[in-house]
Amino acid sequence: MSIIVDNVSKSFGSFQALKDIHLEVKPNTLVALLGPSGSGKSTLLRTIAGLENPDQGRIVINGKDTTGVDIRKRNIGFVFQHYALFKHLTIRENIAFGLRIRKSSEAHIKERVTELLNLIQLEGLGNRYPSQLSGGQRQRVALARALAVQPEVLLLDEPFGALDAKVRKELRAWLRRLHDDVHITSVFVTHDQEEAMEVADEIVVMSNGKIEQIGSPAEIYDNPASPFVIKFIGEVNILPSHAPLFTNNNHFGEEIFVRPHELDILLEDDGNSSRAVVKRIIHLGWEIQAELAVDSWELTAHLTREKFDRLQLRHNQTVYIKPSRVKSFREDSVAV
Hints:
336 residues; alpha+beta; 9 helices; six-stranded mixed β-sheet; 32% strand
């Protein structure tokens, strides 16, 4: 089922949360709304769900204009950050809740709940209560409850935000596998760029109520459309264009952006590099982070363990650096 957000705007008093948003979500895709707090991503999700009404524009789901349609008639599954499970109901009863509201037969309810318990890998725990489950298990139950009524669209608002880092990572992989199994059009809100990159087919980067860029994780990372996107997605070194590292380059804009893994470290000047001093070496397990000083500027470089072992870097060592790739933007935010 497709979703079209057609030039939607939404204000709360004098604050404009959404500004002329246009977005098309393709059928059976998993799309992330990514941005910092206050960017409008949760407001956009709630507007798609019908929890908020737009001041202008339309929400079209599966070819039908649902703007103003009661949320109970939109056939949407919604998963909240804090589970919102009924504490006095068992896991089976929680999953069955929506089906009972729709007056499904007891035979259908039993069959559907059993199917979903298997899908979320909680077979045998159906008679427990939410308080008897871990946070990750409770969030899986919340997802199962949303899927029970076979919605056309699944919406998730920071679904893993209340969980610790290890459980979040496990559930991200699980959500991706679940989506590939059930093939439902899904939109989820997150401020975690790693989460969006790992899970989503497509990422919608938002800032100040507007969409900055839409694209696959690779497109967003490798070809950011604006300074905001390159600063928000992944680590990046930011230097003025007159810094020594770029004196031989003709760039537009006042700032130059270099990803840490695109900064090469040499032991000798090759005639096209800049002198730097190693200020700190950080072992991150699978890679090494080197913090460098170039005149009055500080940069970060990421090296593989193999390259670090070959260079034998040490504190206060003089090295030479050059970027393998740089990014800059004209004033109209066109990448160059």
